[in-house]
Design goal:
- With about 100 residues, the chain is mainly β.
- The chain has a single domain, classed as Jelly Rolls.
- The chain has one helix and eight strands, in the order ββββββββα.
- The chain has a five-stranded antiparallel beta sheet, with no helix packed on it.
């Protein structure tokens, strides 16, 4: 899994490139945020409910919902957040309240 960090104008985009079979870490945010499946097919599990999606696809992940992405094919997935943090080493902690 390869991650690229993009910052601009109070917006952070976490660009993740998954190989088929890879999964992101299950996590929860205290706010709604947008995600964009640029390409590929995934299983998205939100609060225990799994759906299959094929890109391109835009969706909203609601606040307080546990979510995890598993790549069925090679995938590019964007998580889009409003934040003033621009430090790649600290941004996950800021967004996850750690």
């Amino acid at each position: 899994m390869e991650i690229e960090h993009r910052f601009g104008g109070g917006v952070y985009i976490k660009e993740t490139h998954f190989l088929a079979g890879e999964s992101g870490e299950k996590h929860i945010h205290d706010y709604d945020h947008l995600s964009y499946l640029v390409s590929g097919r995934v299983e998205l599990k939100v609060d225990g409910v799994t759906v299959r999606l094929e890109g391109p696809k835009t969706l909203t992940i609601e606040a307080g919902k546990s979510h995890q992405v598993t790549a069925l094919t090679n995938v590019t997935w964007l998580c889009i957040h409003a934040t003033e943090c621009t430090d790649p080493e600290k941004v996950d902690g800021v967004l996850l309240g750690a």
